[in-house]
Amino acid sequence: MPNPETEAIHQSLKRCHQHSDFIRIFYDEFLDDAPHIQAKFADTDMNRQIMMVEASLYTCILAADDVPYAVRSIRDLGRMHHGMGIGSEYYDAWLDSLIAAVRRCDEQFDERLESIWRDVMRESIAMMLAAGDAQDAS
Ligand code: HEM
Q1: CA nearest ligand 1 atom 21, residue
Q2: What is the pLDDT of residues 86-102, one digit of tens each?
Q3: Would you say residue 34 has pLDDT above 80?
Q4: For residue 138, is it within any domain?
Q5: pTM to 2 decimals?
Q6: Ligand 1 binding residues, C-beta < 6 A
Q7: What's the CATH code of the domain at 80?
Q8: What are the residues whose beta carbons fall under 8 Å from the beta carbon of 95, sequence distance 6 or more?
């Protein structure tokens, strides 16, 4: 059953999605002035990427509630990102860009919601990085 924190972030995500450019705002922020990050998306179909990341945010919320399907998906994502040479050094900027996009798109955004967003997303980031590291160890 979702706990109050994941329910709060779920509602926040739904408000963000009422803003049609939510994920595009996130990518504008993430790629802005960062050639090393832009290089990773050199061959990416950004329309498809936006859809996939939009969906994956729901999966991150479910993973924070230990839903097994979601945890498996996030670990798979971690292995995939690790395989693309995306290590821990990229994730702070990713999370800051996401928070900047939520701040612009959720009219109820406040410090409490920011802290919940960061906690929930850090859980998924930790799962992704651990899955990538485990791949090296095996
Ligand atoms: C919690 C953090 C993240 C989540 C939830 C996430 C989510 C996703 C998803 C759902 C995909 C598509 C997977 C597929 O095609 O099967 C993807 C692809 C990708 N992500 Fe992430 N991502 C995260 C962090 C990052 C970071 C930090 C970077 C750093 C540059 C990054 C760069 C990429 C790239 C380059 C692709 C492949 C694009 C392509 O197919 O050309 N991601 N990500």
Answers
A1: 81
A2: 999 999 999 999 999 99
A3: yes
A4: no
A5: 0.96
A6: 37, 40-41, 43-44, 49, 52-53, 56, 60, 77, 81, 84, 86, 90-91, 94, 121, 124-125, 128
A7: 1.10.490.10
A8: 118, 121, 122, 125
